[in-house]
Design goal:
The complex is a heterotrimer of chains A (323), B (523) and C (329). Chain A contains 14 helices and no strands. Chain A is mostly helical. The radius of gyration of chain A is 20 Å and the shape is globular. Chain B has two domains: 238 residues, P-loop containing nucleotide triphosphate hydrolases (Rossmann fold, 3-Layer(aba) Sandwich); 173 residues, Rossmann fold (3-Layer(aba) Sandwich), CATH 3.40.50. Chain B has 17 helices and 24 strands. The radius of gyration of chain B is 25 Å and the shape is globular. Chain C contains 15 helices and two strands. A two-stranded antiparallel sheet of chain C has the order 1-2. The chains are: A mainly alpha (323), B alpha/beta (523), C mainly alpha (329). Chains B and C meet through helix 2, strand 8 and helix 4 of B and helix 1, helix 10 and helix 11 of C.
Chain lengths: 323, 523, 329
């Protein structure tokens, strides 16, 4: 029996991705009304540019949350910062060293992710605890590597990629983001790894009993999370052109929020990247809106918290105890 | 002093779980001062009926009267207020809390919010005193997780007794108890009865029912088929009442399988298994019988590499090392597990994914899945197994039990397995789908696969199997072949083995029984 | 061997040797880590043992110790509170504004801090138990709300704490520094709270939610209570912070939330609930605080200190997680 248009519309409206997208658009519209110029193409592009850093980091967080077993990566913010530092130091303002810089950052990040994954799978340390500890270690690594002094400069082409408007008037980084989004979504939906990831997250035991190598899948998820965190950090360096010691540290919890807003279940096994990307946009637009409205900083922070709770209450509830 | 008016009266109880009707108009009447047995084969609804009375299951329809007053039991709390307490096999004990703390859990005596340890101990003392002979070396300040399952069960019983119920339900509560512990529990039950309470004893252990109960109600397929006084009823009569008239159950089996030996296992041991040997041929359906929990599921999990076990296994004459389900599947072994929700399916995922997940490698190139071939494969299974679905993209949790189970079958059929292990494949499946699944099983065997099936329903084993191995305490104790496989023989074999071993070894400890060689029928 | 078990035998307490033998590995690890930390700290900085040394070290511990105890109660109940740091900040700035530096308003200030903490805790509890939101994200969101409100109350660090508070904090009673007494008082406080029926229900809810529910334990109420109690203790921590610093700061408490979780894990409390004791959390908090003192004293190059601290934490977390009973699958 084919669903009627009415039922189709209703199901669509209950889709968290759609809800998040509608909220993003609403926020832009409301902003445009309250503060003319907020919704101008220029502004929107700027907001999207800033959202891309969070969005790239959220790729890894999405994968980790999808892997289930209370999967979470609290170290993404610090890993992003470390990646940014390693990359920018290697590059030191030179295009020739752009690629080696990126490779170094990604390589080190992969090792960190590997440590996370092995601790979680082999030592059975809960993901929350393991990545929390790693957060501290990476923070320490940052200080060791920099000696407390943030130096290193981004390569010019990186800066141009992020800050310029080269491709049809859109910053190159947005296209990179879109490309990564497409690749990730294809990997999640069309590859063996993707299907095994969803299986591991939605029923670890059932997946294992279906021949899925759940341990390997989980470790891979954490490696990918750190890699994407590093990439996000590198993009941020292109934006700010120089590094700060806590460049991306504050992006960890927003990355989790973006994943949840996007409809990926915290329990794992359900969701996808598109929602997280939109979630990142929602969070960024919300922050911009509150800043532009000259809302005092306190109100901004409060509203962010309230909005998150409201969104969670709509589609983030857990099961009742009574059977 | 027995009362003449009934204390408990349940009538017209209906309960449906999705497509399965667990209870259809079941009824039960028990008087105060009476121990009332509730028996029936697996799937008869006896547990569900008890749970309706205890408030943990809400019936679709029911008339309940307690001491002549019509009542509605909407929750466990309501039941407790009405003086009903229940003890199940799944315990309501918190593992890290002590024995003493668990005994008063939920009804701790307190003054101004502060726990009164002394009052708690005072309240618990009489119960502990009665249970002491059976508990053995236990301290009240020991966390409950350190106790043996039998001791934990006794604490659970004590917890119910502390609520001083006027109606006590014991649902398979003696399952993990040794004979001497059971004797103490029986004494307690008798004392409770003599004080005017009604005790409902749900069990499949006929010897205990005949020893303890005054009357009994027998359920079959969700209906009450008989009510009888225990005096003057023999166990055989009870079996007949449970099983019904000996009908010619249509056996869906073909000729005597003569294929080559495909699966051999020698000395499988570990966990619940204590040394199992078996041999199964291509095209054969071998059943695992006996009381539930005697190692049947564990055997299947071990053969699938899902749990560690020692012993030798050979598939098609070649030894295999079953290190994981992945290696087992690579050798052509498939397992349809016992718990559909947590082991068999990925509930939130689409039907197509559930069908594809075990055979991904066959339809990929360089790790990329061919969407077209996936769809074709899924559609072919849906058609071949007549699975009623809305669309391949619907989550598998939207399907009825029977259809979801067919998806699990389909998942494995796509791997073209040589050995198919089935753990209670029609549990929670409606009658129509059941018949279809039997046909699927038969077809698999006819196509040359070796099938090993564990079932909680004897009728099912009769219908489908060429041979049945009856297990007891992790080893094969009896074998029924061909026409020897009847419901009566199965029930008898399971119970007889249980009784024999219990009588012979009064103080046995877990896992120490010597293998017995009781083979019935010609191998 | 043929002893008929009697109720007296059951009721008598287990012999000490048996009880010691059954103590979890995690608890031994916690105690060992604490002892190592204390010995190392004292060895490296002998003046830690001086009255001044003890007083100031305990004064710095106190906030983390309090928040660790608060977190322990929530975690034992099966939950998690990432807003603990924000509650500390909010209650401290509200108290500062209420007291306005006057000694006479000190009692009011105390009550306010506790009241604010309680209110925040109740909000957390309702969001988790009624709305049934996942505690991790939910308390992250409420942390935002509380931090924002703290900024509203005190936009930038300032305000004065009545001298009587800071003064008392630095004094000693009978030769024992007040800060030490307060830490001891916290431990003593727990010894009282653990006998509350609600605390037993909290532990049951964390250790076996289905079993607790089946035993008619009011599970939602117990969850709410655990967050409320946590909030109250965080309010007290807010006062401790004021005593330490002498002025209000809306940005304080940033590390307290995650630090308290680390202290809880090092203290042998299982994140899934039902296991462990806040005393362990106190030990964990002291261990972690001492660890940073030790690293400072080791005259490590500044940049290496943080890494060493991180490695120590991860080592402690790993040891505790290894010792903890395996999660049921």
């Amino acid at each position: 029996m084919k669903p009627t248009t009415a039922t189709r519309a209703r199901t669509l409206l209950r889709d968290p991705v759609v809800i998040a997208a509608i909220i993003a658009i609403l926020l832009v519209v409301v902003g445009g009304i309250l503060k003319p110029g907020f919704a101008s193409p220029d502004q929107i592009v700027n907001m999207l540019r800033v959202a891309s850093f969070l969005g790239i980091i959220a790729i890894g967080q999405t994968i980790v949350v999808l892997s289930g077993g209370e999967g979470i990566d609290l170290s993404v913010g610090t890993v992003a910062t470390l990646g940014a530092i390693l990359a920018s130091r290697t590059m030191d303002g030179s295009d020739a060293l752009l690629v080696p810089g990126i490779l170094l950052a990604v390589g080190v990040a992969a090792l960190i992710g590997l440590a996370n994954g092995l601790g979680i799978v082999l030592l059975r340390i809960p993901p929350f605890v393991m990545t929390l500890g790693m957060l501290g270690v990476v923070g320490g690594l940052i200080l060791v590597v920099t000696g407390g002094v943030a130096d290193g400069r981004a390569a010019p082409s990186l800066v141009q990629l992020v800050n310029g408007r080269d491709v049809l008037g859109i910053p190159g980084i947005l296209l990179v983001w879109a490309l990564l989004a497409v690749i990730v979504t294809l990997v999640l939906r069309r590859t063996t790894f993707g299907m095994q990831l969803y299986a591991t997250g939605s029923g670890r035991e059932a997946a294992r009993l279906s021949g899925v190598p759940v341990g390997r899948v989980t470790v891979t998820a954490y490696v990918l999370s750190s890699i994407f965190a590093a990439l996000g950090g590198i993009a941020m360096v292109g934006y700010s052109q120089q590094v700060f010691l806590n460049l991306a540290n504050d992006l960890t919890l927003p990355s989790i929020a973006a994943v949840v807003i996007g409809g990926t279940l915290v329990a794992g096994g359900v969701g996808g990247y598109l929602g997280s990307a939109i979630g990142a946009i929602v969070l960024t637009v919300l922050t911009s809106l509150l800043t532009t409205l000259s809302m005092p900083e306190w109100a901004r922070i409060v509203v962010q918290g309230v909005v998150l709770i409201a969104l969670l209450a709509v589609y983030g509830r857990q099961r009742k105890l009574r059977t | 002093m027995t009362e003449t008016s009934p204390l408990v009266r349940l009538s017209g109880v209906h309960k449906r779980y999705g497509g399965v009707r667990a209870l259809r108009g079941a009824s039960l009447t028990a008087a105060g001062g009476e121990v009332h047995g509730l028996l029936g084969p697996n799937g008869s609804g006896k547990s569900t009926l008890g749970k309706v009375l205890a408030g943990s299951v809400r019936p679709d329809e029911a008339e309940i009267e307690l001491a002549g007053q019509p009542v509605r039991i909407g929750s466990p709390r309501a039941a407790a207020r009405l003086g009903v307490a229940a003890v199940y096999q799944q315990l309501s004990l918190v593992p890290e809390l002590t024995v003493g703390e668990n005994l008063v859990l939920g009804s701790e005596p307190a003054t101004a919010g502060f726990l009164s340890g002394r009052a708690a101990r005072r309240r618990a003392r009489p119960v502990l005193e009665r249970l002491a002979p059976a508990l053995g070396a236990v301290h009240a300040d020991q966390p409950v997780r350190e106790l043996t399952p039998g001791q934990q069960q006794l604490v659970e019983i004590g917890k119910a007794l502390l609520r001083e119920p006027r109606i006590l339900i014991l649902d398979e509560a003696t399952a993990s108890l040794h004979r001497d512990q059971v004797a103490v529990v029986f004494e307690i039950v008798r004392e409770l009865r003599d004080r005017g309470a009604a005790v409902l004893f749900v069990s499949h252990r006929l010897d205990e029912i005949t020893e303890l109960c005054d009357r009994a109600t027998i359920l079959r397929s969700g209906e009450t088929v008989a009510e009888t006084a225990m005096a003057g009823t023999t166990p055989d009569e009870l079996v007949r009442l449970m099983v019904g008239d000996v009908q010619a159950v249509e056996r869906e089996h073909g000729e005597r399988p003569s294929g080559r030996v495909r699966l051999t296992a020698r000395g499988l041991a570990g966990g619940a298994l204590s040394g199992i040997d078996l041999e199964a041929r291509a095209g054969e359906v071998v059943g695992l019988g006996g009381l539930q929990g005697q190692g049947q599921s564990e055997l299947l999990l071990a053969l699938f590499g899902a749990t560690a076990a020692t012993g030798d296994v050979e598939v098609d004459g070649e030894p295999v090392r079953l290190a994981s389900p992945r290696t087992a599947a690579a050798r052509g072994i498939a397992l349809v597990p016992g718990d559909r929700g947590t082991q068999g399916t990925l509930p939130p995922r689409p039907i197509q994914e559930n069908l594809a997940i075990a055979s991904l490698g066959r339809r990929t190139r360089a790790g990329v899945i061919s969407a077209r071939r996936e769809r074709t494969a899924a559609e072919s299974m849906v058609e071949a197994l007549a699975i009623k679905i809305g669309g391949l993209g619907d989550p598998i949790s939207s399907l009825s039990g029977g259809n979801a189970q067919k998806v699990v079958f389909g998942k494995w059929l796509l791997t073209e397995p040589g050995v198919v292990l089935l753990d209670d494949p029609t549990k929670g499946v409606d009658v129509g789908a059941k018949a279809e699944i039997y046909r699927i099983i038969r077809r698999m065997a006819d196509d040359g696969a070796t099938v090993i099936i564990n079932s909680s329903e004897d009728r099912e084993l009769v219908t489908v199997c060429d041979r049945v191995l009856v297990l007891f305490e992790g080893a094969v104790r009896a074998e029924l072949v061909g026409n020897e496989i009847t419901e009566e023989r199965l029930v008898q074999a399971a119970l007889v083995i249980g009784e024999e071993t219990q009588v012979q070894q009064p103080a046995r400890t877990h896992g120490e029984t010597a293998p017995d060689d009781t083979h019935e029928g010609t191998p | 061997m043929t002893q008929t078990p009697t109720v007296a035998a059951i009721e008598e307490r287990r012999p000490l040797t048996e009880r010691l033998g059954r103590v979890r590995v995690a608890s031994w690890a916690t105690a060992a880590l604490l002892i190592v930390a204390v010995v190392a700290a004292v060895a490296l900085q002998p003046n830690l043992l001086s009255p001044y040394g003890v007083a100031s070290t305990f004064a710095t511990f106190l906030p983390l110790v309090l928040v660790a105890v608060a977190q322990a109660i929530v975690v034992i109940g099966g939950g998690l509170d990432l807003s603990a740091g924000a509650i500390v900040a909010l209650s401290s700035v509200v108290a500062v504004q209420v007291m306005q530096g006057e000694a006479g308003s000190v009692p009011l200030g105390f009550l306010t801090a506790i009241g604010v903490g309680l209110a925040c805790g109740i909000v957390n509890g309702l969001v988790v138990s009624r709305l049934r939101l996942q505690p991790l994200i939910a308390t992250f969101a409420t942390a935002s709300v509380f931090s924002g409100l703290a900024l509203l109350v005190l936009p930038s660090p300032g305000g004065t704490v009545p001298a009587i508070i800071t003064g008392t904090f630095r004094q000693a009673v009978g030769g024992v520094p007040v800060s030490v007494l307060l830490v001891v008082a916290v431990a003593a406080g727990w010894l009282v709270v653990r006998h509350l029926r609600i605390m037993r229900h909290i532990r049951a809810t964390g250790g076996g939610p289905a079993a607790a529910f089946a035993s008619l334990v009011p599970v939602a109420g117990a969850q709410l209570a655990s967050y409320a109690i946590c909030g109250v203790i965080c309010g007290l921590a807010g006062l401790a912070v004021l005593g330490n610093s002498g002025s209000g700061d809306p940005f304080i408490g940033g590390d307290l939330a995650l630090g308290s979780v680390a202290a809880v894990v090092v203290g042998g409390i299982a994140l899934r609930g039902g296991i462990g004791s806040p005393i362990g959390a106190i030990a964990g908090a002291i261990t972690l605080s001492l660890a940073s003192t030790i690293l400072f004293a080791l005259s490590l190059p500044t940049s290496w200190r943080a890494l060493a601290a991180g490695l120590v934490v991860i080592l402690a977390l790993a040891l505790s997680a290894l010792g903890a009973p395996r999660r049921q699958r």
